[in-house]
Amino acid sequence: MPSFLSLPNELILEISDNLLPHDIAALHQTSRRLNSLLENALLTELFRSRSFTHGRRLLYQLSAQPDLKSVEHLIKRGILDFTDPETLLHGAVRFGSVHVLKTLLHFGLEADTKDAKGRTPLSLAAKHGRANFANVLVAREDVDVNSRDAKFMTPLLIAARRGWKVIVEILVQSGKADLQNISDRMGRNCLHLAALRGRVTMIVISLLEKKDLDMSVTDSNGCCTPLSWAAEKGHEGIVKLLLDQKEVNPDSEDNRYITPVLLAASGGYEGIVKLLLDRKEVNPDSKDDSGSTPLLLAASLEGHKGIVKLLQDHINTKLDPYPLFSRTPSPLPGPTTDNTEAPAFPHPQLGAIDVKTTAPAPALTPLPPPPLDSPSNKIKLLPISSPLACPSLAAAVTIIPVAILVAYCLNYSKYLSS
C-alpha cells in the first residue's frame, strides 16, 4: 500500500485543499518535501479563513521549534491582525514552552499586557507555577512585578496562595516585589495567604527572612494576623515558625478580642494549643466579646479532653499560686521545739502575718450570777459547754461542719477527675 509521501505533488496539493490549517501545518512539518510543497497552501488557507485558533496554533508550533524565519514571515503577512496579540503571551504560558515566549518577545510583543481579567503573563506564570516563564519575565524592565488583576491580586499574592515556593523565591529575590504595602482586597498580605492556606512551610520561611515584612499586621477588618489564620486552620508547622519570630505576638487579639489560643481550642488542635500555652505571654483564660474562653469552647466539643486538661492545668498554675492540697503547710507562728520563733506564714491575699504586732483578742468579762430569789436558781443549770445543755444545737454544731467538708471533698474530687 503506497504511503502518503509517495503520492504525486498534484494529488497532495488537492488533498490539502480539503484540510484545516492545523492539519496542513502538521503535514508541513513532516518532511522537507512537504515543508516546501505545502507552505503556500498552508498560508493561503490560513489567511483566507483568518482563523484565530489555527493562526495561534501555527504561531505556537513554529515558535516552539523555534523557527524564527517562518514566524517572522507570518508576522509580516499580518497574522497578528486576527490572533489577538495582546493575549498571545498568555496563551504561550498555558502552552508550556518557554521558547514560544522568548520567540514572541523577540518580535516585539508587549510583555506586560493584560487579559479580560486583568492578568498579565507573569500573573498566569505565578498561578500555574511556571518558574521558567517567571524568570524570563521578572528579568525584563517593562514588566510590573506588582501589577494587580481584577481581583486585586499581584503575582506574589497568587504564588503564596497557590503554594508555589519557587515562584515566591523568584519574586522575593528579585527585589522588585513589594512585601509590606501590597495586600488583597481583605487587607491580607502574602504571609497571611500562605498561613491561611497552609502552604509549604518553606514559603513562609522565605517570607520570614525578609525583615521589612510586618508579621503581626491584621487584615483590613482588624480581624486576623498570620498567626491567627494558621491557628484557626490547624497548620501547626506554620504556627511553630511564626512563634519563633520575636516580632510575633503569641497572644494578639482581634477586634472581637479573639486570641490564637481561643481559635486553636475551638478548632480542636491540641498540638497548636500546647505550642501557644508554652509561651508565658499567652493567657489560657482569655475571653472574647461574647465571654467565651478557650476552656469553654474546648469542653463543648467531643473528643477534646486533652485540650481541656491542658487548659485546666495552665489555668490552675497561672491563676491560683496556692492550689488546694498541692502545697506543704507553713509552720504556725509561735514557739517551736527548739525554742525559736517560727516565721510568719504567708497569706494569698493579706501577705505575711506577724504575730508579734497583731493585737491580742480582748478578754471576755464573765456575767454576774443571778439573784438568789431568781427562778433560774430553782432549776439545775448545766454548763453551756455540755452537750446536754442543748442536744439539738450540739448535734448541729457537730454534723454541719462534717457535712460541709464531705461535700467540698466530693466536689473537688469530681473537679480533679474531669
Features:
single chain; 418 residues; mainly alpha; elongated
Topology:
Blueprint: H1 9-16, H2 21-28, H3 32-49, H4 52-64, H5 68-77, H6 88-95, H7 98-106, H8 121-128, H9 131-138, H10 155-162, H11 165-173, H12 190-197, H13 201-208, H14 226-233, H15 236-243, H16 260-267, H17 270-277, H18 294-299, H19 305-319, E1 334-335, E2 341-342, H20 391-417
Antiparallel strand pairs: 1-2
Helix pairs in contact: 1-3, 2-3, 4-7, 6-7, 6-8, 8-9, 8-10, 9-11, 10-11, 10-12, 11-13, 12-13, 12-14, 13-15, 14-15, 14-16, 15-17, 16-17, 17-19
Helix content: 40-55%
Can you count the helices? 20
**Roughly what is the average pLDDT, rounded to an integer?**
76
**Spatial order of strands in the largest sheet:** 1-2
Q: What distance lies between the first and last C-alpha atoms, to the nearest angstrom? A: 87 Å
Structural class: mainly alpha
The SSE string, one letter per element, is HHHHHHHHHHHHHHHHHHHEEH
Quick one: how many beta strands?
Answer: 2
What is the rounded Rg?
A: 42 Å
Portion in strands: under 5%
Task: Describe this protein's structure.
- A two-stranded antiparallel sheet has the order 1-2.
- Strand 1 and strand 2 (341-342) form a beta hairpin.
- By secondary structure, it is mainly α.
- The radius of gyration is 42 Å and the shape is elongated.
- The protein has helices spanning 9-16, 21-28, 32-49, 52-64, 68-77, 88-95, 98-106, 121-128, 131-138, 155-162, 165-173, 190-197, 201-208, 226-233, 236-243, 260-267, 270-277, 294-299, 305-319, 391-417, and strands spanning 334-335, 341-342.
- The protein has 20 helices and 2 strands.
- The chain is 49% helix and 1% strand.
- ANK repeats lie at residues 84-116, 117-150, 186-220.
